[in-house]
TrEMBL record:
Species the sequence originates in: Phenylobacterium soli
Main location: cytoplasm
Listed name of the protein: Ribosome maturation factor RimP
Ribosome maturation factor RimP C-terminal domain: residues covered: 90-156
InterPro entries attached to this UniProt entry: Ribosome_maturation_RimP (IPR003728), RimP_C (IPR028998), RimP_C_sf (IPR036847), RimP_N (IPR028989), RimP_N_sf (IPR035956)
Gene name as annotated: rimP
Alphabetic keyword roster: Cytoplasm, Ribosome biogenesis
GO BP terms, alphabetized: ribosomal small subunit assembly; translation
Amino acid sequence: MRGKTAEDARLLELLDPVAEAAGYGIVRLRLMGGSEKRRLQIMAEDANGEMLIEDCAKLSRAISEVMDAADPIAGEYTLEVSSPGVDRPLTRKEDFETYEGYEARLELDRLAEGRKRFRGVLAGVDGDNIAIDLEGEEETTLIPFAWIVEAKLVMTDELMKRGAQSRAARLQQQDTE
């Protein structure tokens, strides 16, 4: 889910250790575009779930160095390194734990209960399953993590408030340093 294609998976194998060595985790990687100019988009964050502009630049330099040496992409491409943003994609099991209590959209690779798309409040992780409270349902629904092809937080007032609080705490910490 962090990558969509086999090529994305190979790039993740190459770049995960680079990001980890620099102090970041790759949330999502996508190589987009046809044979012309392609775009390698990488969303990453540090251990605190943050990614500042300086962090993007640092990780971009580290990745560029390895990409130049390994040359795993034929032709020209543009590298974009960014934060996952407030309404971030959820790509790892720990993301579903971190954002428990927040609303999310899930898309599956198969039908479950007659549908592929679900929207509800995340209720954590239960083994290899993602727990989600769906509107109108009394019981928590368990969806196998392996079935999820796309998951993203829904922009809500609560999520915006969390982002604002995180930003305020970061600014306050910078002021004290």
